Amino acid sequence: MISLSKKRYLSFFIIFSLLLMVSCGKKKIIKKYHVTKDEEAVFCEVQPKAWKKIYISSKFNETPKSNFILSKLKIEKDNLFKLDPTLQSIFLVLKGEGLFYDDQKEFLLREEIAGYGYDCSAFIKAGGELELILLEKEPSLEMEKGIIIKNLFWISKENLPGYNEVSAKIIFHPQKDKTNFFIILAEVLKDRGNINYDIHPQQHGVFCLQGEIKGKFYNEEKEFTINPNDTAFTEGHFPHILTGVAEESLLFIYQG
To answer: What letter does residue 140 receive in the DSSP assignment?
Structure first.
């Protein structure tokens, strides 16, 4: 028979092993701090194959313009958060629901938006519940398969006639009224939150917009329609403002 002391030791060992298993199954917390007394943000690290990804989740008050946190930030006055300008290359995904503000311009986030940024100095304030995903290293464009982020897709290089750079496929959320949509375009565009996309100053080239499903789009306040298999080109320097509504998707191709 097992003595009482051995039983106690065995019980302690089993409990300790279970606690160790539970703790190892959790995401590694990089850093954790309080946004306000009632809100906190947790930085968790995961290791996909190609790059490092950081998830930041935070819940906000129902009041619009409540504080919002971004990763690797400088804390500014009035508890606003600003991306560190030394970060030259990031990829952002905002997921959640609520009213959000970028440079004092309001936009409504219902499902998920994404943007690739070079100049990431814009303030963002938020009301609602939001999850932000920051990819510190840009997705590899040489991957055989696109990286799927819900309804937004990175597409690897394609051998399209005359286009030797990057293509990106965007799925739009159909809505009744004219609405802004958000674009992923590798190494070219930056997301300002209000759908004002500027080409990077060092980039020159041609954009090809090919519609899989027809829809009405607005380029610098001029309306145009893209039907299936139609192509529209624009070249030279931007800023290039593009808003619109699509039933399904467009294909953006950049030629350097």
So the answer is: P
